[in-house]
Structures are given as C-alpha cells and as structure tokens.
Specification:
Length: 260
C-alpha cells in the first residue's frame, strides 16, 4: 500500500484531532499558539499547501512531546518533504507504523464505525460539513477519519455515491483482550455518558439489573448476549436506515471474587 502522507503531517493532524476530541472548543488557533506558530502558516501546513521548515520541526516535536523514535521520524519527514525527495520510497518501518497506528484508531475510536454505518443511511452526502454535522464532530476530525479509512482500504471513492465500503462488516475476536479494544470500550462509555444527558428519552434506552449469580454460567450468558445482539441488529437494520445508533451491553462483577 502506498503511503504518501508525510509523517509530520500525519502526526500534526492526529494531535489536533485528539485535542479536539478531548475539548470540542479547541481550535486551530489554540493549536498554533501551543506550537508557537502563526495560525495561517499552520493551516497551510495541515492542508499540505506548504512544507514544514526543518528548523521548526525540531521545536514542534518537542512541544508535541513525541517519543524519541517518533520525534526522529517527524523531523526526518519534514526534511524529506523540503528536499522534494518524492521519488524515494518511504521506509518500510514508517509505512508499518502509520498503518498500525491507523488500524489501532479504527478499532478504538467510535467515529470510524459510525462513519462506516453513516454511508448506508438514506440521503448520505459525501460532504465533509454534512458528515461532521451528522456525527457531531469537527470538519477536521471528519476529514481525518475519511482519510484513514481510505488509506487502510476500508472505503473507496465512488463517482456516484462519494464513498462506498469495501468491507461488509467489522468484527473483533470474541474473548481477546487488546489495548485497542479496551480503548474502544472506554470510548463507548464516555459517549454513552454524553448521550444520557442530551438525547431525549424517547430516542434512547438505558437500563440495568443487579443480581447475585452463578459465575459458572457466564459462558452461557455471553452466548445469549451475542445471539441477542445479532437479532437486534437484524431487526433494526431492516427497512429504511435513517440514523446511526450504537448498542452497548455490559456484564461485569460488582464484588471482588475469591480468585481476584
């Protein structure tokens, strides 16, 4: 897979997106102030209309608090862009780093799954402003999500629809723990907390039950949950699809077990 995005550009976009996820009021001007650069210059860099001066790259890497390896890639990529060495293939380790990083984010951050479902919604528009409004994210975040999905090959551009999915569905391995999956669950819980406050009761359902159980039946309970999820998915996706929803189901102990 050809990775044409300079590493410094990838890192700057990721950093801005991450800060805006934590603080929706965080602006490009705020980002420029934190990096000690004029906002118009930073905007041109982020849009790939101008390169990142090599001297400034060192300062930015420090302000972004990048680990040593990423800092070296950040500075080196700015020099490569500055010297217009596009004929030289990007190092394999940099390609792998970018791909692994994008895969991690697709698994761990809710916007990727939401966009893949939004494509199927009636009246979908391949317009960044419309997509950002429907997902309640910034336009820069929407552009980043689309770019990552294109890079990974989960979507492709289509002349009629704008974007189409190349994968019918995304599933993670049952029972397998990973940092990305754990981050995904934490992300979902944070989103749920927000929706609890702002989504009208008639458009949501939050319920819970506390019980004393036989832990020997946990495998059976998980099987029932999986079957219920499949039936719920079949029910809700039949007919006209006009909104994107997320269903979360948690089963966890409130007491500390004898083996813990």
């Amino acid at each position: 897979m050809q990775m044409t995005e300079p590493f410094y550009l990838h890192t700057l976009r990721e950093s801005l997106s991450s800060r805006q996820r934590r603080n929706p009021a965080y602006s490009l001007r705020s980002f420029a102030k934190d990096l000690d650069i004029d906002s118009s210059n930073l905007s041109a860099i982020l849009q790939n209309k101008r390169g990142l001066p090599h001297k400034r790259a060192n300062s930015m890497a420090r302000k972004l608090r990048l680990p040593p390896k990423e800092s070296a890639l950040f500075v080196a990529s700015s020099l490569r862009k500055q010297m217009a060495l596009d004929s030289i293939q990007v190092a394999a380790d940099m390609k792998n780093y970018l791909l692994v990083d994008k895969y991690y984010k697709i698994v761990s951050e809710w916007e990727y799954y939401a966009f893949l479902q939004l494509i199927k919604v009636r009246g979908f528009k391949a317009d960044t402003e419309w997509i950002a409004q429907r997902l309640s994210v910034s336009e820069s975040r929407a552009r980043l999500v689309i770019r990552h999905l294109l890079d990974i090959g989960f979507i492709k551009e289509d002349g009629k629809k704008g974007y189409v999915r190349t994968t019918p569905s995304l599933e993670t391995s049952d029972g397998v723990e990973s940092q990305a999956l754990q981050a995904s669950h934490r992300d979902s819980l944070e989103v749920a907390k927000t929706k609890l406050e702002f989504v009208p009761l008639e458009l949501r359902d939050f319920s819970s039950v506390t019980m004393s159980i036989s832990t020997a039946k946990i495998p059976q309970a998980k099987a029932i949950i999986r079957e219920f999820q499949e039936k719920l998915h079949t029910l809700l996706t039949s007919g006209t699809q006009d909104e994107v929803y997320q269903f979360n189901c948690q089963l966890f102990p409130l007491t500390q077990g004898k083996d813990q």
